[in-house]
Specification:
single chain, 263 residues, alpha/beta, TIM Barrel, 8-stranded parallel barrel, two-stranded antiparallel ribbon, 12 helices, 15% strand, globular
């Protein structure tokens, strides 16, 4: 692995081998998502506790302070919306020149295995890897499932994650599921967990994050379960304690409640 690639990955995955990415890219297909209407204000108190920010170029330029940011994972796929016919019909939206110009530490792209646009999304990933490898920029593949939530099982996610790694992704973002170890064991590159829709309780989030870490994930890429929480700083600090301080789900939940009371 070239020095530049190693250096960029080391900005994302910390010295303990773990990471906490904070995604605020939801607007690229959802528009002004609840609690993310003003992304700069939303992320300001959260940045000290994440390791990297997953964001589109538009929000990066408009809402993220370049002098006080974290490493950037740039969302570079899109072209569809929640009111369109099919979320899977994405294209690459951002050039390699733009990625370099914005000093991104990595890029992220969705793949839709099993959809009508499987081939297009996997070809997008391959084309992006071909370009980014020339410049030492890691690609994170996101195993998206659109509106077909029933596909979030170990067999499907293991298939999607392995295909992403085979095509050259340096990191894979996928959903936690039952038997998550089967997903991780079949993927030869680091796996980070997505949050998906907002969970019912904080403890529910902490339990799946803890379980996933025990089963081999290197970290998380959680957004809505953090910044849509009434106590987002307490939530991100509690989740960080699982990732970087080896807290159990119960210990993190107790920390969350303690920090919540301090507000």
């Amino acid at each position: 692995m070239d020095w530049g690639m190693k250096n960029r990955l080391s900005q994302l995955i910390q010295a303990d081998g773990r990471c906490f990415f904070l995604p605020i890219d939801h607007g690229y297909f959802q528009g002004p998502t609840s609690c993310l209407e003003k992304p700069g204000e939303t992320i300001a108190p959260l940045l000290p506790y994440c390791d990297a920010l997953f964001v589109t170029r538009g929000v990066l330029r408009a809402a993220v302070d370049p002098s006080a940011s974290k490493p950037i994972i740039l969302r570079v796929s899109g072209g569809t919306s929640v009111i369109g016919r099919d979320l899977a019909n994405e294209s690459i939206t951002t050039s390699i020149e733009e990625v370099i110009r914005l000093n991104a530490s990595a890029v992220g792209i969705s793949i839709f295995v099993g959809s009508d646009y499987e081939r297009e999304s996997l070809t997008n990933l391959s084309d992006l890897v071909n370009e980014c490898e020339d410049f030492g920029i890691p690609v994170m593949a996101v195993t998206a499932v659109g509106k077909e939530l029933e596909k979030r099982d170990a067999r499907y996610l293991a298939l999607s994650s392995r295909i992403a790694a085979e095509l050259g992704a340096r990191v894979v973002k996928t959903y936690w599921c039952k038997d998550f170890d089967k997903v991780v064991c079949g993927c030869p590159v680091p796996v980070v967990m997505a949050g998906g829709p907002k969970c019912e309780t904080e403890l529910e989030v902490m339990e799946f994050v803890y379980d996933g870490m025990q089963k081999g994930a290197v970290g998380i890429n959680l957004g809505r379960n953090v910044w849509q929480n009434p106590y987002p700083v307490a939530m991100i600090r509690a989740l960080r304690s699982i990732i970087h301080e080896n807290y159990t789900a119960k210990e993190a939940w107790e920390l969350f409640n303690s920090l919540k009371r301090e507000k």
